Amino acid sequence: MHEFLAQLANGVELGAIYALIALGYTLVYGILELINFAHGDVYTFGSFTALVVLVALRAAHFLHGAGLILGIVAALAVAILACALLNAGIERLAYRRLRKAPRLAPLITAIGVSFMLENLIELWQGAAPVPFPNVIPNPELEIGALQVGVQQIVVVALAIATMVALHYFVKRSRLGKAMRAVAQDRDAASLVGIDVDRTIAITFLIAGALAGVAGFVGGVSFGSAWFLNGFGAGLRAFTAAVLGGIGNIAGAMLGGFLIGLLESFSTWFIGGQWSNVAVFSVLILVLVFRPSGLLGESLPEKV
Amino acid sequence: MRSPRIAALAALLLLAAPLSACSSGPAPASTTIGIGVDLPLSGADASVGTSTLDGIKLAVERANAQGVPGGFTFAVQALDDTQQGVHNPQQGASNVRTLIADDSVLAIVGPYNSNVAAAEIPITNQAGIVQISPSAVSDGLTLGKDAAMLRRANPDVNTFFRVCTTDSRQGSAAARFALDLKLKRVYIVDDNETYGLDLANVFARDFAKLGGTVLGRDHIAPDTQDFKALLLKIKGYKPDFIFFGGTTSTGGGLLRRQMFDVGMGKVAFMGGDGIPDIAEVAKKRADGTYYTVAAPNADLLPAAKQFVAAYKAKFGSDVGPYSANAYAATQVAISAIEQAIVANGKKMPTRAQVLAKIPHGAKNEVMTPIGPISFDKNGDVRKPVISLYAIRNGHSAFIEQLNLSE
After folding, report:
1. How large is the C-alpha radius of gyration of chain B?
2. Total domains in the fold of chain B
3. pLDDT tens per residue across span B387-396
4. Disulfide engineering: B162 pairs with which of A37, A38, B133, B240, CB 3.0-4.6 Å?
């Protein structure tokens, strides 16, 4: 029982990170029908910007008492801002010109951008994994039979708060409504006076911001940042988005948590070397038997 | 749009022209003998790779200062086998081909990693060039059917030697060390690579044979970031320690670090010579880690003191885990080349003549900082030593060593 609950908590923590990244894939796909393969590397960039801020603050002896909380907020804010701008910049420079090109062109461009980001991050921070500062003290709390670390609670709470905020933004705000309109029909949206270019840019900003949050919590949770992290995490998050139904926001969250739990429990029951097999088998099974995912509507047009 | 692009292209070509002229310039003077080197010099293995290269540079510098018969000079030609941040067998194989294509290269020192060595040995075996590794410890590189497969091109000729000892000796020494430390219950994890898997297999066998309890065994997938699921599972077994077969970069560092996240910080962690740099990833959490190195502790050998002092003076840093081995491997290669020069009437010897001068048996040992070295018929050292270290306050502390003379 003890171990089951511990694995459950670990799966939820992992799932929260995947869900945040998956949301970025799904938002962009929803509006452009583009699988933004560079998204995983935006996540890596978020980890490193948060890491750089924390290391600088620690060197300035700032991370004590109230300074610690301020420092964490600052690192998170910088990561969010940097990733949002990076993602919007990628859209502006690499994808906007290709909006009317055949679908394969932006897809391959996305892979190219991904390689570029990976190598630029390697140039910046080197190829060895960089330890992420242990900013959140991690005493174990006992809640009944469940043992969880404070770090775990912070990671999951931060991720869920972000997702709730996103949900309300998309459903309630004017910009959210514009995003949904552009996703539904770009031409009709521009006919009723929505600035399509601006709406798409904002979608990329938001997707990037989510990757920034994910980068921060991922760094805290795994304890290191590495220039290739985004590749593996990105593929798993992409699987989560497909599982939930790509283009569907609630689906990406559900898919993220399911993939996190699957990774955790497959490690427990079958063994660590099989967790990737379990996760990517799900990708294949979903694509074969239910390409629209758990919550997605079937849209035969979309690729 | 067209013409500026063409102009830019032309400018690029003009810029490139003098560069290509450089690389295809006059061949190196015939008095230079190349010592080829293949090591991981960037990426996750950079710190162990460069300290190993420094050992080689020091040996070459010494030999040149003492004067080489026939008026030759040795020069290090180092290539990096890192790709995407990690040592890469295909890159190693391609590096070795590059070195062999250069006629002035008479011996190769390296590689660092066993899986890279397995890709390189068939090539050096076919070319008949001496290759000496400071650190590749996997058994199958020199022993049994695996080694025979690697020597398919010239089954009767062995060109691969190593100055470190083997995985199986390291694994069984680690099993003895663990029981000496009163660590009796182990959970074993490995990274599924040539080196890690072999080390963990031998450790599992010998630890059980000597009376320890093996609670379970797991392998990790490449690029894994989250080890907490695995560690939670291990925690349920209440082990005295976790034995890890692998390197810091393939998961050792994060595994140790995340042990603290699941409340296993006080459980000991042990591994082989793949994790001496673990503190770089695990930081303060590396304390409580034990590791073996398939070489004597250089500080304890009289011949080593001089080496350690010279190394510190030249490079301004502490000796790396395999610097002394690299120095020794280079000394052996240089000694064989110098003898071959003399035997060849002070003229440039062939690679086969150099191979014939590699020390075998008890008679012609080469004196090195890691003790006198000569090889058995498989290419392994005749007097292996294994030492045990612990990480304390983020630094390596020597504990004990075992002499495993045959």
Report:
1. 23
2. 2
3. 999 999 888 8
4. B133
Number of domains composing chain A: 1
Which residues does chain A have within 8 Å of residue B281's beta carbon, measured at their own beta carbons? 129, 131, 224
Q: Which residues in chain A have their CB less than 8 angstroms from residue B83's CB?
A: none
Same domain, B253 and B197: yes
**Which sign does the torsion angle of CA A262, A145, A149, B187 carry?**
negative
Contact status of B219 with chain A (Cβ, < 8 Å): yes
Say whether both B158 and B171 belong to one domain: no
- Spell out which residues of chain B touch residue A231, defining contact as CB-CB under 8 Å: 223
What is the ipTM metric for this complex? 0.82
Q: Do A3 and B258 touch (CB under 8 A)?
A: no
Q: B149-173, pLDDT tens digit by residue?
A: 999 999 989 999 999 888 888 899 9
* Opening angle at CA B200, ends B322 and A10, nearest 5: 105
Domain co-membership, B188 together with B50: no
What tens digit of pLDDT does each residue of A225-239 get?
A: 999 899 999 999 999
B287–A contact, CB cutoff 8 A:
no
Contact A272 B224 (CB under 8 A): yes
pLDDT of residue B201: 93
- pLDDT surpassing 70 at residue B9: no
Which residue of chain A has the CA closest to B256?
A223
How far is B351 from B331, CA to CA, in rounded Å?
17
Nearest-angstrom CA–CA distance, A178 and A195: 9
User: What is the extent of the structural domain holding A12?
Assistant: 2-289
- Are B255 and B397 in a shared domain? yes
Q: State the pLDDT at residue B19.
A: 43
| Chain B, nearest residue to A150 by Cα | B261
- In B, residues 31-60, which contact A (CB 8 Å cutoff)? 42-44, 46-47
Q: Is residue B21 part of a domain?
A: no
Look at A131 and B282 and tell me if their CB atoms are within 8 Å: yes
In a domain, A301, yes or no: no
Give domain status of residue B214, yes or no: yes
Report phi then psi at B188, rounded to 5.
-105, 130
B228 touches chain A (CB under 8 A): yes
Q: The CATH number of the domain where A176 resides is what?
A: 1.10.3470
Flag whether pLDDT at B322 surpasses 50. yes
pLDDT at B321: 82
Q: Which residues of A touch B224 (CB under 8 A)?
A: 272, 275
Beta bridge pairs of residue B105: B34
Nearest to A238 by CA among A19, A52, A90, A58: A19
Asked if residue A302 is part of any domain, the answer here is no
Residue A205, judged by CB atoms within 10 A of its CB (0-12, 13-18, 19+), counts as buried
Domain CATH code at residue B62: 3.40.50.2300
Q: Judge if B158 and B41 occupy the same domain.
A: yes
Question: What pLDDT is attached to residue B405?
Answer: 65
Of residues A2, A10, A227, nearest to B229 (C-beta): A10
Minimal CA separation from A171 to chain B, in Å: 34
The reply to whether residue B261 touches residue A263, judged by beta carbons under 8 angstroms, is no
Residue A294 lies in a domain: no
- Residue A44: name the closest of A100, A138, A115, A103 by CA: A115
**Per-residue confidence at A146, pLDDT binned at 50, 70, 90?**
confident
Q: Identify whether residues B266 and B313 lie together within a single domain.
A: no
Same domain, B198 and B230: yes
Q: Do B330 and B200 belong together in one domain?
A: no
Q: Which residues of A touch B394 (CB under 8 A)?
A: none
In a domain, B27, yes or no: no
B25 in a structural domain? no
- Which residues in chain B touch residue A122, judged by CB atoms under 8 angstroms apart? 85
Answer for the pair B137, B113: CB distance below 8 angstroms, yes or no. Answer: no
Cβ of A224 and B257 within 8 Å?
yes
Q: Which domain holds residue B322?
A: 32-165+299-375
Pick the residue of A136, A222, A263 with the most B CBs within 10 A to test the interface with B by mutation: A222
